[in-house]
Amino acid sequence: MNRTDFDAVVVGAGPNGLAAAIALQQVGQKVLLLEGKSTIGGGMRTAELTLPGFHHDICSAVHPLAVSSPFFSTLPLHRFGLEYIFPELAAAHPFDDGTAAFLSPSLEHTAAALGKDEQAYIDLIRPVVNDWSSIVPDILGPLGIPGHPFKLAAFGMKALAPAVTVAKRFQTTAARGLWAGMAAHSMMPLTNAATSAIALVLMAAGHHKGWPIPKGGSQSIANALGAYFESLGGVIETNHYIHSLDQLPSWKALLLDVTPRQLMQMAGYRFSSLYKWQLNRYRYGMGVFKIDWALDGPVPFRADECHRAGTVHIGNTLEEIALSERQAMNGIHADKPFVLMAQQSLFDNTRAPEGKHTAWAYCHTPHGSRKDLTEIIENQVERFAPGFRERILARHVMNSEDLQRYNPNYIGGDINGGILDLGQLFTRPALRFSPYRTSAKGIYICSSATPPGGGVHGMCGFHAAQRALKDVLT
């Protein structure tokens, strides 16, 4: 097939670029998918970052939204080698007294462990869980006419509230801390409006289908998506980094899995003045500092629940987490940051040599931070897992600048593709009838800078593809 024979060109083979390419190829379009690196995946890559035989997820690690995705969940990815592993507990949240709250697949089990807050937790989360299958297509989609408006409105009344406001429902340190750890995934101060949304989504997803780990690493998701796309007749070219549209073959539809900054660099000269003004005003959020460890044994957490969880939220109380997130947003490096940790090798023996383990962690930092936070993060882990440092065989670290160098979509280390506050929740990346259309005919943006935002779910790419099909490919 000549490079001029394609109906659509997709640039960037992350989860959204892959989703867009698959959605178009499924309906008979001829699609070329271009990737700048030697492997596809974007935020879904796995490599031996520390020592031979230790396989680390470079970016994403645990995937509740992948299995909840209305698009990815319809694909026969198991036929292409994808196998999910479901830890006994989705997440654990240890405290200084040696106890831990947790998110279990069972809502009742999770709630019962919260003592006096059992009923408060059930009252908050059960309606979302009961409505999850009905509302998830709207939650993971652009603003529009919802399929179930009353159910979505009930979700929205809780979701748009600041996390600290919703936390007033709870009396116990355990429930308040568990809630704060979930809300901190928003990468915003917990006093911001809409910080409750991600907490509700993650908790409902955990109770609905769990927080799975892909066997062999996050690269397994990318490989399965790529293999499925090629089985449909799609074409992938790697090592093809695009700096300008002049490098591309002709197209009817061009879908770009990039954020506004790269979009302007690649195609700004084609856009209207108003659209360029909007893109230049797009705001990015906090960065992250990430560590991968090769370990001589499992992380020695004091709380037993942490040994049964794929993800561990290290941050202690709501007050401590709220302070660290506010500091990061205000340009301050917290002494006790909120740390998101994954311990995949406890459940997937392909990740490390026999008897050894891996661990993955990051904390939020000021945007674009270059500071080495290794000691600060390891102090936080040691605080809840005494003896942790003695088990470290090797480590690999990436600051916010390193992450952007690795993946240009992570501007300043912002892994969400732009801040998700109220100012951008419904207008990312620009205020338009369709957020996926640019002002240039046939050019679309399909990255996490469009609704519904960050995460491995592919829905930004899926919705961008549907827009392109309606506009120029029918």
Q: What is the fold's blueprint, element by element?
A:
Blueprint: E1 8-11, H1 15-26, E2 31-34, E3 46-47, E4 56-57, H2 64-68, E5 84-85, E6 89-94, E7 100-103, H3 107-112, H4 118-139, H5 149-159, H6 163-166, H7 173-183, H8 195-208, E8 213-214, H9 219-231, E9 235-237, E10 253-256, H10 260-267, H11 273-280, E11 287-295, E12 309-314, H12 318-329, E13 339-342, E14 357-365, H13 374-384, E15 392-398, H14 400-406, H15 422-425, E16 443-445, H16 459-471
Parallel strand pairs: 1-2, 1-10, 2-9, 6-12, 10-16
Antiparallel strand pairs: 3-4, 5-8, 6-7, 11-14, 11-15, 12-13, 13-14
Low-confidence stretches: none
Discrete helix count: 16
What number of domains? Answer: 2
Level of helix content?
Answer: 25-40%
The class by helix and strand makeup works out as alpha/beta
Name the strands of the widest sheet in spatial order.
Answer: 7-6-12-13-14-11-15
Write up what this structure looks like.
The protein has 474 residues and is α/β, with parallel strands linked by helices. It folds into two domains: 8-83 and 214-283 and 415-471, FAD/NAD(P)-binding domain; 86-213 and 286-406, Polyamine Oxidase, Chain A, domain 2 (Alpha-Beta Complex). The protein has helices spanning 15-26, 64-68, 107-112, 118-139, 149-159, 163-166, 173-183, 195-208, 219-231, 260-267, 273-280, 318-329, 374-384, 400-406, 422-425, 459-471; strands at 8-11, 31-34, 46-47, 56-57, 84-85, 89-94, 100-103, 213-214, 235-237, 253-256, 287-295, 309-314, 339-342, 357-365, 392-398, 443-445. Strand 6 (89-94) and strand 7 form a beta hairpin. Helix 1 packs across helix 16 (459-471), helix 5 (149-159) packs across helix 8 and helix 7 packs parallel to helix 12 (318-329). The longest helix has 22 residues, at 118-139.
